Every structure is written in C-alpha cells, then in structure tokens.
Amino acid sequence: MSEPQIPSGSVESTALTAAIRAGDEEAFNRLAGRHRRELLIHCYRMLGSLDDAEDAVQDALLRAWRYRESLMEGAPLRPWLYRVATNVCLDAIARDERRSILAAKSVENGVPPSAGEVAWLQPIPDSLIEPISQHDADPETIALSRETIEIAFLTVIQLLTPQQRAALILCDVLGWSAKEAAGLLDVTTAAVNSALQRARATLQRKLPSRKREWPHGEDPSVAERELLKRIVDATEKADLDAFTSIIRDDVVFRMPPQPDVVVGRDAMLELWVDAGFGSERFGRLRCVLTRANLQPAVANYVLRPGDAAWRALALDVLRIEEGIVTEIVTFPGAVFPRFGLPLTIDEEVRTQ
C-alpha cells in the first residue's frame, strides 16, 4: 500500500483545464496553488535539499505555465504537475556536479557511495509537510508517508541514480504503475522495473534494519517527552555519562555538509570532547525542542565566554528506535529561521 495514486487523484473540472490551456493565468494559479505543498515534498524527496526543492517547485510552476498547451484537454492537472516537477528535478540533478558525480559512482561501481557524500542534505520543518489524515488513510500508508520523509530514507535515496530515485518515488511512494512511470521517464516499462529492483535492494542494504516501536501519534508520547528531557538535561549539563543510557552504543552520527560518518557512541562522544564540549572555552548550551522530517529535533544555542547572547549552534535531528537514540544528524545553526527560531537570544532559553 502507498500514498493515494497521483494519476487517479481528484479530477479538476474540464472547463478550468480548458481555461488553463487557453491562457487563464488566474485559473492556473488557483489550481496549481492547491498542489504546491505536495509538490514541495516530492521535489524535496528527489533532491534532499529544502532550498533546492523550493527552487524546483517555482521552476516547475513556471515551466508548466509556459508549456500549458501540452496539458491534454480534459486531463487532470495534478499528475501533469508531478510530471513537470519530476523532470525539473532530473534536470537539476544533471546540472549539479556534486549530484552527477555521486550518480556516476553508483553506475560505475555498482555500489552506492557513502551517506557522508550527500553534502547538500537539509532538514525540513514538520510545518511544511503535508499531513495525512489518521482517519482517511490506513496504518501502512501513514507509516510509509512518515518513513519516506525521514532523514535516513532521504539520505539513502540520494545515493541512487536519478532514474532509480525517480522510479522508486513515483512507484513505491506515490503509487504510480511502472508503465506510467516509464511514460514520464521516457524509458521502457522493463527499464523502470529494473531500476525499481536495484533501488529497493539498495534501500534494504542501507536503511536501518530495525522497525521502530516508538509511538507515531500526532503529539509526542509521554515516553518520548521524557527521553527528550533527558537528552536536553545531559546536553545542558555537559553530562557525558548521562548519554550512556539514552544513546545506543552503535549510534550513527553525521554533520552535513561534512563528509565524515561516525559510528559508535564512544567515538561520537570523543569527537564532541575533542571539539570542546563541556569545556569553559566551548561555552554553555541551551536547548529548544522542535521537529524536523517528522522526527524529534533539538536546536542547540551556545553562550561563549564573554558573549551577551546565546547564538545558534546546531540542529540535531534524532532517530529513536525502541526508546533509545540510534542516529543523530546535525545541521548548522543557519537552518534555525526555517523552524521559526531566532539566530540569537538575549535571555536564557529553557526547554518547556
């Protein structure tokens, strides 16, 4: 089961579609605007960068308007917009040397590159993610929607070739048939099925093997809130021992755009200490809880010796499995405004 199929989505009126083809910009903006958020998520999955995804959506809407006559009479607008947006993303990947090099490695070696090579990875605030109704969708659909926006999934699909990535998102996430995806990608159905097979094999090798048992409600559970409180306390007190019981011993730690991937709690804490964590010269930390990619996240502010204000340091996006942290992906403090957080604060901030 997957998200509702794009090709069989809601059909806009024939009159409005005809008006768009005839050049009615108001009708186009009204209908296209309804799909802007879901197109953003689609482009974000394709590109792994929120900045690039926003540019891609804007480009897709401009391109769709420019080539509006290619919208078949009476055809629904939504699948056509996805078609345009997917092609915009494929063009963006082809233009970006970093992405092209990564894709070439996958083709030449037959083995996906390291997750640390995805230097353009960015988090997305939960507020920008299209919610799925708990009443209108089955549990498997809800779980799929969550898993395919999480940092771990986003990272792995960036390691796929563009065709594999597009085929996987179109077929396994959005529910297109292999034939429909083949038409969009201008390849054979057999080529799509081959790309899907390779993409699924990569995901099986690269994604965390454990299925999470953490509650998935709209609001954090009591257990999650307690775990996050312990994380905040350990961080603000620079209590290294306290991390032992809340971080798994084989935790994965990454700091995009840095290429290094650190595996293991001891190695991660050693890296923190080497960077000054807990020392007077490093300063004190204060934490603010937020959410990114439908995962809990901690925004860290630092107060250095002599500073009059707390300054944005880093955003930690946490993966939690069975009540313990198994992955921490840390992004620069420059992303704070995306989450409605200031870059500096003049008074102490304490987690609620």
Number of strands: 7
Number of domains: 2
* Mean pLDDT, all residues: 86
Strand fraction equals 5-15%
Distance between the termini: 38 Å
How do the SSEs run, as a string of H and E? HHHHHHHHHHHHEEHEEEEE
Class derived from helix and strand content: alpha+beta
Number of helices: 13
**Largest beta-sheet characterization:** 7 strands, mixed
Structure description:
This protein has 352 residues and is an alpha+beta fold. The protein has two domains: 14-206, no CATH class; 222-345, Nuclear Transport Factor 2, Chain: A. It is built from 13 helices and seven strands. It has helices spanning 14-22, 25-33, 36-47, 50-66, 77-95, 97-109, 139-147, 151-158, 162-173, 178-185, 189-206, 222-236, 265-274, and strands at residues 247-254, 261-263, 284-292, 295-303, 310-321, 324-332, 344-345. Strands 1, 2, 3, 4, 5, 6 and 7 form a seven-stranded mixed sheet that branches. Strand 3 and strand 4 form a beta hairpin. Helix 9 (162-173) runs antiparallel to helix 10. The model is unreliable at 1-12 and 210-218 (pLDDT under 50).
How do the strands and helices of this protein lay out in sequence?
Blueprint (H helix, E strand, L loop, with lengths): L13 H9 L2 H9 L2 H12 L2 H17 L10 H19 L1 H13 L29 H9 L3 H8 L3 H12 L4 H8 L3 H18 L15 H15 L10 E8 L6 E3 L1 H10 L9 E9 L2 E9 L6 E12 L2 E9 L11 E2 L7
Parallel strand pairs: 1-6
Antiparallel strand pairs: 1-2, 3-4, 4-5, 5-6, 5-7
Helix pairs in contact: 1-2, 3-4, 3-5, 4-5, 9-10, 9-11, 10-11
